[in-house]
Amino acid sequence: MKSSDTDSLKLLIIKKSDDLKTHQWVYQLLRNNLLCGRIEPGKPLTIRGLAEIFQVSPMPIREALHRLACEGAVEVKNNRRVIVPLMTAEKFSELCDLRILLETHAAEGALPYIKEQDIEILTQTDAKIDAAVEHNNADDISLLNQEFHRYLYSANPFQISVPLIESLWLQLGPFSRIAINKLEKVYLVDRHAEALEALKQRNLFGLRCAIEADIRDGIASINTVPGIHDYFQGVA
To bridge 16 with a disulfide, which of 25, 30, 48, 74 should be the other Cys (CB 3.0-4.6 Å)? Predict the structure, then answer.
């Protein structure tokens, strides 16, 4: 990955693979940057500016922004301006409550389908998260943490909750990054280790508790950042 800085945006740019169509690549790029909070709340996004950054035509940008608006990640104003929505205290509380509700449900539904090879993959992902924490790499911490949870929940072949959960992540990502940037070091209690142990033991209650504690720890770390609540009405 490399960073690009055009129109004051500092985005993670991932090289396009041959199997991805341009509109798919643009959507994934924007989505990843929102998930890890590279695009801050209140930030206006222009089709022309993004097309210049990605060196593509306006059409795939327009299509990606439309999909992200449907997911609640961006907001289209009356004058057709596209922005990353600002956070409010009420919205933050609601999003966090929904994360706990949906993700504990998704974890419980996934447990019967988890195999030993799944636990090994999750263990490897958790090790990557530990390395990202050690290097204080906020981008990798966010994206790898989401990868861990996404893989776990997707073990259930009948799940329909992952798209809903990812919509919550998209809405929380930009605001959460403000808090992460203000921390001298990102401290993470490894609740994933607790979740992995619960998976090995087929412990439904233990898994639910680990996932809920993981989410609540993240919320607590955001709330402890001095002055973070000043950002609820916009970027200070």
Answer: 25
Secondary structure of residue 141 in the 3-state scheme: helix
H or E element at residue 134: helix 116-134
- pLDDT tens column, 103-141: 999 999 999 999 999 999 999 999 999 999 888 888 999
CATH code of 89-233, in short, is 1.20.120.530
How many whole angstroms separate alpha carbon 11 and alpha carbon 33?
6
For 62-150, strand residue ranges (E) read 75-76, 82-83
* CA gap 58, 105 in Å, rounded: 39
Pick from 199, 189, 205: nearest CA to 145: 189
Residues in the chain, overall count: 236
SS3 content of the chain, % helix, strand, coil (to 5): 65, 5, 30
Q: What is the per-residue pLDDT across 65-91, written as a single tens digit (0 to 9) for each?
A: 999 999 999 998 876 789 999 898 899
State the span(s) of the chain assigned CATH 1.20.120.530: 89-233
Residue labelled with tokens 């992952």 = 162
Compute the distance between CA of residue 162 and CA of residue 176 in angstroms, rounded to an integer. 20
In the chain, which segments carry CATH 1.10.10.10?
2-83
Q: Which CATH class is domain 2-83?
A: mainly alpha
For residues 74 and 51, give the distance between their C-alpha atoms in angstroms, rounded to a whole number: 17
